[in-house]
Amino acid sequence: MLEIVRTLQPDFVICENVKGLRSMLKGEVEKKIIADYREIGYEMNVTVLCAADYKTPQKRERVIFIGNRIGVKNYHPQPIVKPSEYVTTGNAIADLINHPEDKEFNHVPTKHRPEMEQRMLDLPEGESLYKGYSDAWKKCPWNEASCTIKENHGGVNIHPKLPRVLTAREMARLQSFPDDFIFEGTKNKQLVQIGNAVPPLLGKAIGLAIRFSNNDL
Fold first, then answer.
1. DSSP label at 217?
2. In the structure, how many helices (H) and strands (E) does the chain have?
3. Would residue 103 count as lying in a domain?
4. What Å distances lie between residue 14 and 58, 128, 135, 164, 205, CA to CA?
5. pTM of the model
6. How many domains does the chain have?
7. Which of 66, 161, 166, 182 has the most C-beta neighbours closer than 10 Å?
8. Is residue 160 one of the residues assigned to a domain?
9. Parallel, antiparallel, or unpaired for β 12-18 and 61-68?
């Protein structure tokens, strides 16, 4: 990415990664990123943003670097809703519980063995089906913003009410994608695309913050 920025010279740069990057090598990785961009003319600021603060029904925390080479202050977006106002998992996907299977809508429920279905039903919300995988096979809470949506080698999130994992469309809803955004490819490829994406509403908030920075000129 550094080489692309060096070549294209955009006014602003945005980098996104998992929150754990900030503590890698006791913070030295973060310092190196900032120093590398300063060397090619960009002043960077970094913070952790939670997608739920921007009306995304998901408590997804990601580290966001914003930099510019035009001498303005970098602004990160301020939260637009309080935790008590978060959009919940239920708010986002309740209407899909009885929705028929629809491949064109990316809504194809996974079929599980009866014993697996029972294990999913018995699993408390917010917990993982497998103790060694804290982020895989985790059941989303119904009355809260969802836990982080991700595709982890097939270990996707578990539906809070139904004995199955989430469909691609349910995952997309929890990532704040609109229903008319259709994902292509096999079902597994769809899950990867959705799980790896920056939630559109978080992206919008970051974009508006950059527009505000640009208006400082």
1. -
2. 7, 3
3. no
4. 21, 32, 26, 36, 12
5. 0.93
6. 1
7. 166
8. no
9. antiparallel
Classify each residue of 139-164 as buried b or exposed e, where b means 16 or more C-beta atoms within 10 Å of its C-beta: bbbbebbbbbbbbbeebbbbbbebbb
Identify which has the larger pLDDT, 125 or 151. Answer: 125
Can you say whether residue 25 is alpha, beta or left, with left for phi > 0 and alpha for psi between -120 and 50 degrees? left
How far is 79 from 155, CA to CA, in rounded Å? 30
CATH code at position 51: 3.40.50.150
Q: Does 69 fall in a domain?
A: yes
How is residue 184 written in tokens? 């292509």
Range of the domain at 73: 2-80+199-214
Question: pLDDT tens digits, residue range 34-93?
Answer: 999 999 999 999 999 999 999 999 999 999 999 999 999 999 999 999 999 999 999 999
Residue 24 lies in a domain: yes
